[in-house]
Design a protein that fits this description.
Strand 3 and strand 4 form a beta hairpin. This protein folds into 2 domains: 420 residues, no CATH class; 166 residues, STAS domain (Transcription Regulator spoIIAA, 2-Layer Sandwich). It is mainly α. It contains 26 helices and 8 strands. The longest helix has 30 residues. It is elongated and about 115 Å long. Helix 2 packs across helix 3 and helix 7 runs parallel beside helix 19. The strands form 2 sheets. Strands 4-3-5-6-7-8 form a 6-stranded mixed β-sheet. This is STAS domain-containing protein. InterPro entries: SLC26A/SulP_dom, SLC26A/SulP_fam, STAS_dom, STAS_dom_sf. It is a multi-pass membrane protein. One of its GO terms (cellular component) is membrane.
Length: 649
């Protein structure tokens, strides 16, 4: 049967519809980050040169500058400390110190090599999408918590303490306890240097941030601080007079290519996977931020290739793992850089340091580099300001932020990140398991259907229960979906059994009455009582049709499809027909393949909810008119109501 439906109404925006029908309610940084990696500062300069050159040719982020990043450096330093722990006493000028440093950079380079290989394999397998599992709350909470690890790890350099580096779970608290225990041994000269550096760096960085629109280029406070501190330390012989720790010899020129310590691969594999995932996710996230800001696109798999090549090749030049750097990227973007070639200017500065200026920083106090490390984390600490807004927008994302932050701070960087990712995925699973099931009502004189709980002026279509489920239907939530549907429809096991008994009794009476009428020609005097019984059962639950709006059901698995079949059968037992609307192609294909059409009329699947409602109402009108006509015809021929003509198809 074909029919046409015309609807005339005003155009509705969401706000207008809610008003009508809704319910009322109320470079120096490179050297500094080398300290985090537990290697000599010169290797930080190498890491800020070679990866940058390689990324220029392979990367897609026009404003991204690669090099040393605090979080990646800290995680790499933890691996280095586990395999090559630093002794408390060692002569820095001895051959033993040179061998020790070679072992450390060998491990750090091995991490970079293995990280690059993993990224290249991921690129070959087109796994760039994996970065999406690090949501924005996870990334911000992780970097903010990692900033605390970096700050605590730099306290001993700022205070002039010679302490072993703690790794593993609760390392932050172990380091803090060790620092507090050794406070009486603080080197007052290094403490004074740290306080002066912080007094200079913090205000100038604040000026750079607040007046970045007016300043043509940020004030290079780090470079100025390094130069002044080096000159003061050289002129005053602070290393010999006050026993402060200095950078020491920085060789000029490029490093000689050498093989990383590949024999450590089995020991570093687990940590390297975490470092790779963090480095790539941070790099892609930063690249996407600036891509969205300037209107171009980022290709995640190409970024995997770029960072994979950068880490693999640079590892043979004594570099540790690299990633996108927040501070340098901000500077390049503020200075007007628009292509990857802008990274060549930063590498040019590093090149000048490597070839000419590097040896001049021999007397640079390590406390200065530690202060630069800490002050470079300003933006990471300020991410706490996002928490009130996050609480207002999404309580679930707020919980993801808090759990990730606490896990990273209390446990460790890599383990805390893993807990954050797992918890975030669990929240997604829980939300799909407990997706809301609502009853839809119709806005008068429109074809618009909305949940009655939020739109009190919408009304239910008589005799039709319109339900919508806001999530997928799969093995994980099929029980909840069944409970919600049964609750809204009132399909209790007791009611189903009572209906089955009533239907069987009615069929038996009709069968006996028909036989009696044919054999004896006696009218069925019980017809009216049976009909009254059927009407009473129907009026007890005035729902004769159930319409399921599948517009929010994005997918259905085998378990969900079987549940549809089971519910269709149960509804038929109580005399309720089932209709579907707004099914997407994949859902409809699975339902059809599972055999649902054996229990359901294929003509009961509609494109829209309104089409289904119009069809149901037309069918009821046709049935009512047909019943009235048949009864009138029987009365005109003076036939009893139980005449077989009534049941003749």
């Amino acid at each position: 049967m074909s029919a046409s439906v015309a609807v005339y109404r005003s155009l509705y925006t969401e706000d207008r519809f809610k008003q009508a029908y809704g319910s009322e309610d109320g470079a120096t940084g490179s050297m500094a980050f080398a300290l985090l990696t537990s290697v000599a500062p010169i290797f930080g300069l190498y890491t800020s040169f070679f990866p940058v050159i390689l990324y220029v040719f392979f990367g897609t982020g026009r404003h991204v500058s690669t090099g040393t990043f605090a979080v990646v450096s800290l995680m790499t330093g933890s691996v280095v400390e586990q395999l090559v722990p630093s002794p408390l006493e060692m002569n820095s000028s001895s051959s033993e110190a040179a061998d020790f440093e070679a072992q450390r950079i060998g491990v750090a380079s091995a991490v970079a090599l293995l990280s690059g290989i993993i990224m290249l394999c991921m690129c070959g397998l087109q796994l760039g999408f994996l970065s999406t599992y690090l949501s924005e709350p996870i990334v911000k909470a992780f970097t903010s918590a990692a900033a605390f690890h970096v700050t605590i790890s730099q306290l001993q350099s700022m205070l002039g303490l010679r302490l072993p580096r703690h790794t593993g779970n609760f390392s932050l608290f172990k380091t803090l306890a060790s620092v507090m225990e050794n406070l009486p041994h603080t080197n007052m000269a290094e403490l004074l240097i740290s306080l002066v550096c912080l007094a200079v760096l913090v205000p100038v960085k604040e000026i750079n941030m607040r007046y970045r629109q007016r300043l043509r280029t940020p004030i290079p406070v780090e470079i100025l601080t390094v130069i002044v501190a080096t000159c003061v330390a050289y002129a005053s012989s602070l290393d010999s007079s006050y026993n402060i720790e200095i950078v020491g010899h920085i060789p000029a020129g490029f490093p000689r290519p050498q093989m990383p310590a590949v024999k450590t691969f089995p020991d570093i594999a687990g940590d390297t996977v975490a470092i790779t995932f963090v480095g790539y996710a941070v790099s892609v996230s930063l690249a996407m931020i600036y891509a969205d800001k300037h209107g171009y696109s980022i290709h995640p798999n190409q970024e995997l290739l770029a960072h994979g090549i950068s880490n693999t090749v640079s590892s043979f030049f004594t570099c540790f793992p690299s990633s996108a750097t927040l501070a340098t990227t901000n500077i390049l973007e503020s200075a007007g850089g628009y292509t990857q070639l802008s990274g060549l200017f930063t590498s040019l500065v590093v090149l000048i340091v490597l070839l000419l200026i590097g040896p001049l920083f021999y007397f640079l106090p390590k406390a200065v580099l530690a202060c630069i490390n800490v002050t470079s984390l300003r933006q990471m600490f300020l991410q706490f300001r996002d928490l009130p807004e996050l609480w207002r927008i999404s309580r679930m994302d707020f919980m993801v932020w808090v759990v990730t932050w606490l896990s990273v701070v209390v446990l460790n960087v890599d383990l805390g990140l893993a807990i954050g990712v797992v918890f975030s995925m669990m929240t997604v699973i829980c939300r799909t398991q407990r997706a809301g099931c609502s009853v839809l009502g119709r806005a008068s004189n429109t074809e618009i259907y909305r949940p009655l709980e939020n739109h009190s002026k919408c009304y239910e279509v008589p005799g039709v229960k319109i339900l919508t489920y806001n999530g997928p239907i799969y093995y994980g939530n099929r029980s909840f979906f069944r409970e919600e549907m049964s609750r809204l429809l009132g399909l209790t096991p007791e009611k189903i059994r009572s209906w089955e008994k009533a239907r069987k009794a009615l069929e038996k009476r009709e069968r006996d009455a028909t036989i009696s009428t044919v054999e004896r020609g006696i009218a069925n005097t019980s017809f009216s009582s049976e009909n009254e019984f059927f009407k009473s059962e129907t009026s007890e639950s005035d729902v004769q049709a159930v319409l399921i709006d599948c517009s929010s059901v994005i997918f259905v698995d085998v378990a969900g499809a079987r549940l549809f079949t089971q519910m269709c059968t149960e509804c038929q037992k109580v005399g309720v027909h089932v209709y579907l609307a707004n099914c997407n192609e994949s859902v409809l294909k699975i339902l059809t393949s599972s055999g649902l059409m054996n229990y359901m009329n294929p003509q009961h699947i509609f494109v829209t909810v309104h089409d289904a409602v119009m069809y149901i109402q037309q069918q009821r009108c046709v049935y009512n008119c047909h019943t009235v006509n048949v009864i009138t015809l029987l009365q005109s021929y003076a036939l009893p109501p139980c005449c077989p003509l009534l049941f003749d198809k």
